[in-house]
Amino acid sequence: MHEVSSTGIDQSDEACFEKLGPQVHRALQYYVYLYKDPETGEPFYVGKGVRDRVLAHHDVEGGCDKSRKLDELRARGLKPHLVVVRHGMSESEALAVEAVLIEHIGLENLTNKVAGHKTNSQGRMSLAQVRSRYAADKIESFDIPALLFRISRSFRYTMTGDEASERDRLELYEATRGTWKLGAPKDNVRYAMAIYDNVIQEIYEIDGWQPGGTDTYQTRPELNRLDSEHCEFTGRRCEDPVIREKYIGKDVKAWFPKGFTGSCRYCGTEPYAADKAA
Asked: What are phi and psi of 245, to 5 degrees?
């Protein structure tokens, strides 16, 4: 693999935006690139590709954040700086480098729509998270009434822990609180637990329940419509050190046995009708 200086390309040269040609294509193989703001030097997009992929975004129009950023630059007579960060890679290597860059810069600071490849399973973790992922202690019983919500598709390890940003914490809370199809009253449930990979990642104290979409979702705008067939809870992060020490990072695989396809499970000291909730 070869590394290219991150000083950028002289954008006064229009040839920079011409097709690269077969000789360059062969040398580059798979590569990872940045689009950088020419005024601030800050990256606003991370991508990976082959051949002329790095040029594919420049003249594309559309309604996504990346296109809007490029439109803003064009309106001021500017072009992005294009930087090849690493080249001469296989596709799997390029996917890994792209994911690390997105995670390092922060998805919230980029116009990328999604985190990098396998970020939720192999991305940045604290040592405690590594231990809980691969050798978590199993929970034999619960002494508090709680609903366990599986959030596999939206979880990233950077959402929890001391280094999690406010945006990351909000995203995890909104992924956990709604919306769900639960078939029974929930008044006796005091806690909601975010589950990823059969491990408790976060705990929330529940203040109340309401129809889905009642409150605005900042990180999940697709849920901002009233949905009386689903529900959501309002609450806050549980700060009780005893509860956090006992449950965070613990294995709850026993509550999601083979064949159980639901996203939610009740755990507590009494039976609960929503135990088979979808």
From this structure: -65, -35
Task: Determine the straight-line distance between the first and last CA of the chain, rounded to whole angstroms.
Answer: 47
Q: Which of 99, 123, 131, 132 has the alpha carbon at shortest distance from 32?
A: 99
**SS3 for 33?**
strand
Neighbours of 69 (CB within 10 A): 18
Q: What is the mean pLDDT of residues 92-118?
A: 84
**C-alpha closest to that of 157 among 126, 186, 184:** 126
Residue type, 48: K
What is the Cα–Cα distance from 195 to 275, expressed in whole angstroms?
15
Note the pLDDT of residue 276.
40
Verify that 150 and 260 share a domain, yes or no. Answer: yes
Contacts of 204 (CB under 8 A, 6+ apart): 173, 176, 177, 191, 192, 193, 194, 233, 235, 236, 237, 238
Instruction: Tell me, yes or no, whether 133 and 270 share the same domain.
Output: yes
Look at residue 200 and tell me if it is in a domain: yes
Question: How far is Cα 218 from Cα 252, in angstroms, rounded to an integer?
Answer: 29
- My answer on whether 146 and 100 are in the same domain is no
CB 179 within 8 A of CB 224: no
Report which residue type is found at 57.
Answer: H
How many CA atoms lie within 13 Å of 3's alpha carbon, on the beta-carbon side?
4
Residue-wise pLDDT for 255-272, tens only, equals: 888 888 888 888 875 443
Q: Which domain holds residue 176?
A: 127-276
Q: Are 88 and 145 found together in one domain?
A: no
Query: Is residue 122 in some structural domain?
Result: no
pTM: 0.64
Asked if 138 and 170 sit in the same domain, the reply is yes
